[in-house]
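anyone seen this seq b4? input:
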Amino acid sequence: MAGNGADSTIIRLDNVGVTYPGGVMALCATSIAFRTREFVVLLGRSGAGKSTLLRALNHLVPPTTGHIVSREFGVLGPRHSLRQHRRRTASIFQHSSGAAH
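predicted toks r here
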């Protein structure tokens, strides 16, 4: 995928799964491609793995299976490519405290 200008895929997850210590599966093996000019919505019940998938994109939660491929940097994981990838992406986290402001 790296260097292929004909492909509109920006980042791809190939069978990415996350299992926490104790065997708690947070994300079943998932494959998805995010392409330029696409608008993507992740829907699911609480605990379905939406946040885990998003955190895995930047290895904030490291995948325990599969791999993530960036068009610009190739397979993410080596410290150098991951550091470069994180500089080019951003995450905004929303936390609901339940309190009125």
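The beta strands are 9-20, 24-35, 65-70, 74-75. The two ends are 46 Å apart (CA to CA). kinda curious what u guys think
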